[in-house]
Amino acid sequence: MNLRSSLIPKQNSAMLLCAVSLVFVSATTGCSSKNYVRSQTAPIVANVNELDEKTAADHNAIVATDERATAGIANAQGAADAANQHALAAGNAADQANANARQAVNRVDSLSGAIANLDQYKQLQDVSVTFRFDKATLTPEDKQQLDALAANLTGTRGYILQLTGGTDTVGNAQYNYQLSERRADAVVQYLSSKYNVPPHKFYLVGIGKDQQIAPDNTAAGRAKNRRVEIQLLSNMQQPGSAAEGAPGAQSSLR
Fold this sequence. Notes:
Blueprint: H1 3-104, E1 106-107, E2 122-130, H2 140-150, E3 159-165, H3 173-195, E4 202-206, H4 219-225, E5 227-234
Parallel strand pairs: 1-4, 3-4
Antiparallel strand pairs: 2-5, 3-5
Helix pairs in contact: 2-3
């Protein structure tokens, strides 16, 4: 065997050894790279999972808050609807009470013939309230005068209230008659609702523009004619009067 032949197996063995070494190194390097990547991505995955959980929790909280808000709005709307119904019922009851009071009021052309022994009634107080043009609404000044009148009613025995409504000469007669009655009704409603004056105590006489108390050719005169006169009358002697208990001082009106 020559020298060349003996060297060939040795060279092949060396090459094989090198190849095996390269494969081992490559495998070792690959495993190390995967482990490195895994070690770097694990915290990122954990953060993503935590963020997903927090997002889901926030979403659930938002849904729960929205449900509570919706329920609260529904409850508030229900309470508001109930309050509106109660207010409407109260308003209807008040309107009905006012309508009943207006129907129970005595409406006459005059007191003569409507009240027996009218000549025995004496005037205790006289109040006149005025209205704006074509209005039947009491002014604050009007209410002050009516308050002063009402203060005397509690201690007055056997009284009646005669109301006469007036207008100026503007407009037709029928309209003015109706306007005068609305003005008298405004006085009745105020005294009956605030001071519980019974309806039967009122005697309304709508006079329209038939009786003027001032010249109607001036603005000041027309303003005086747009009025309701309230007379407090009684046929009984009042407490403290010297003639109290005198014969003929009794009346069926109380």
